[in-house]
Amino acid sequence: MFNGVESFSHFYISTWAALPTCFMGLFMGHLHFELQEKGFKGNDHKWFVFLHYISVPIAVLWQIKAGMYATKHTSLEFTASFIAIDRLVYFASAFFFIFGLINVDGPLKRFFGWEGWQPLARMSLAVMLLHWIINMVIAARPNIYGTSTFDT
User: Using N-to-C axis directions, what is the helix angle for 15-37 and 76-103, rounded to 10°?
Assistant: First the structure.
């Protein structure tokens, strides 16, 4: 898909490539606020509950099928348009999943709202901060030879 392109970071890291998703996020945030102000109840709308429950399978199937289709095309124009559409579809499915977790009372909300996740979340932050320090110590060393127990 990225044949002949110097780096795919032009598509994934650049700010201008993320603008459509950012604007869609602002729109969805505004929509969420307006629906909350009007007293939207997700359980009252079967179409919304249905979208919430199929959003993750749609995201997974989209990534598999669209990725298989995209590998057959190598033009730069197709790649740019595919990435823009891919981000929007994936964002829409993630929005319906997260918005459904907030507004639909069901097994997923109870699973993700389980109190047992709190100690794991606190522990993962500490582990992430510790690994960041270790990575910076290893990556920032000016010498090449081994002087630490972290060297392998």
Answer: 30
Model confidence pLDDT, tens digit, residues 41-92: 888 989 999 999 999 999 999 989 888 888 887 777 887 788 778 888 888 8
Nearest to residue 14, comparing CAs of 69, 74, 87? 87
Spatial distance between the Cα atoms of 36 and 4, rounded to a whole number of angstroms: 48
Rounded CA-CA distance 27/16 in Å is 18
Query: Do the Cβ atoms of 1 and 73 come closer than 8 Å?
Result: yes
In the numeric block, the tokens 């579809």 are attached to 89
- CA 55 – CA 75 distance, rounded (Å): 30
Half-sphere exposure of 102 (CA within 13 A, CB side): 12
Gap between the Cα atoms of 120 and 96, Å rounded? 25
Cα distance between residue 75 and residue 33, in whole Å: 40
- Residue 68 has phi, psi (to 5 degrees) of -65, -40
